[in-house]
Write a structure and sequence with these properties.
Layout: H1 3-12, H2 14-26, H3 35-48, E1 52-54, E2 60-65, E3 68-78, H4 110-126, E4 132-140, H5 148-155, E5 162-173, E6 177-178, E7 182-196, E8 200-201, H6 212-229, E9 236-244, E10 251-252, E11 255-264, H7 267-287, E12 291-294, E13 300-302, E14 305-307, H8 309-323, E15 334-337, H9 341-346, E16 349-357, H10 379-385
Parallel strand pairs: 3-4, 3-5, 5-16, 7-15
Antiparallel strand pairs: 1-2, 2-4, 6-16, 7-11, 7-12, 7-13, 7-14, 8-10, 9-11
Helix pairs in contact: 2-4, 3-4, 4-10, 6-7
């Protein structure tokens, strides 16, 4: 297909892409629970006649074999929603559709990701005889990193040359796409531990071991340590988001939980941050006669998303040729994290940001926000990029 034929094919499926996005949006499911979501995906792949592979959990891979030899490429979409109650309105007006499941909604755009990849598959089916190589269309849970391990294990069975994914982004103007080289999304160092002391009456703290005190010291010491030990040229953010302990005003608790994250774009600096967190926690606990139980989340959960320069340039040039240079935009890297980093550790690839911020329509609320919404007019651009 030439450029015009591809654009016409994409536009032909515009309504289909929008309809699929709305179906996914109305029936969201949280990570690890996307059974109905996968049933919808299987239904659509079977309609297209695309062979697929079901993975342990809720992931699947649709396999598009072209009629000509060529590269083996991965295109990935995430499928899970969030445990958030959705607002009926976006930033300006009532949304075109909202979740029909109380307390669950697609507040990050994964409904759009699935719809765009299905639209991409529709186009690829049309051009199958002219398609060079094989495209592996991967659908997986992302929010709690439940799906990526099974996906990475399955992809070992295929000779992958490169990979690509899109993420809708409220920080970028609608109708623009950013496919830049280098760090794009942050890595996450998880913080999660219990400090164990000894319970007692508040009138005699000397007869108990109060874990709240070392917890408070750890929190303030972490902020000081990050300020003085993290390389000033390599930003690492720190957020302590939880400190839970105690059930009464006059009872010293047995234990206290502290949780949060640190975000980073430099691999070595992120690992150093995790070491600082563990060292300060262990040593402070000892000073206060407490013990520490580090929880499974207390480790490097994901590394940064770092785009391969050659793949990023190749995709950016192809999008520019297909849709015009005016669609190429730019934005700062994003401090959120993405399990797609696991793909980029294994294969050359890139993650593109598809802008959805449209003040006139009312989209632009932050991700993971009840007012988050997608400007559906950008979805064909996403299909062109994929």
């Amino acid at each position: 297909m030439n450029t015009e034929q591809i654009k016409n094919a994409v536009e032909k499926y515009h309504n289909y892409i929008v309809e699929m996005r709305r179906e996914f949006h109305r029936y969201p499911e949280v990570s690890g629970k996307e059974q109905h979501t996968r049933e919808i995906l299987v239904r659509e792949l079977e309609k297209m006649g695309v062979p697929y592979r079901l993975l342990p959990g809720t992931g699947l891979i649709g396999i598009m074999e072209g009629g000509k030899p060529g590269k083996h490429r991965v295109v990935r979409a995430d499928i899970d929603a969030l445990p958030i109650t959705e607002a009926k309105e976006n930033l300006k007006q009532e949304k075109v559709c909202i979740s029909e499941k109380p307390g669950v909604c697609h507040a990050c755009g994964h409904d759009a990701h699935m719809a765009m990849l299905l639209g991409t598959m529709k186009v690829l089916v049309e051009m199958k005889e002219e398609l060079e190589g094989t495209v592996y269309c991967c659908f997986e849970a992302e929010e709690d990193i439940t799906g990526v391990a099974a996906m990475m294990e399955a992809l070992k069975d295929y000779p992958i040359d490169e990979c690509f994914a899109l993420h809708v982004y409220s920080g970028l103007e609608a109708g623009k796409i950013d496919i830049s080289a280098g760090p794009r999304m942050a890595g996450t160092a998880g913080i999660g531990f219990y400090l164990n002391g000894r319970s007692g009456h508040s009138s005699r703290p000397d007869q108990a071991i109060n874990p709240i005190i070392p917890a408070a010291h750890i929190i303030t010491q972490l902020n000081s340590a990050f300020m003085n030990q993290i390389d000033a040229e390599k930003t690492v953010t720190l957020s302590i988001c939880m400190m839970n302990g105690g059930t009464a005003d006059n009872v010293i608790p047995e234990r206290v939980y502290v949780g949060g994250t640190a975000r980073f774009f430099d691999r070595e600096e992120g690992e150093k941050a995790q070491q600082i967190i563990n060292k300060i926690t262990e040593n402070t606990a000892v000073c206060h006669n407490c013990t520490v139980d580090f929880q499974p989340r207390n480790h490097i959960m994901v590394y940064p998303v770092i785009n391969d320069a050659a793949v990023a340039e190749s995709v950016r040039n192809a999008v520019s040729e297909l849709c015009g240079e005016q669609v190429i935009g730019s934005c700062d890297h994003w401090y959120a994290s993405e399990s797609y980093s696991r793909y980029l550790e294994q294969y050359p690839g890139a993650l593109g940001f598809l802008g959805i911020r449209n003040e006139e329509y009312g989209s632009g609320a932050a991700h993971h926000n009840e007012k988050f919404d997608v400007d559906e007019s950008v979805l064909p651009l996403g299909v062109c990029a994929e």
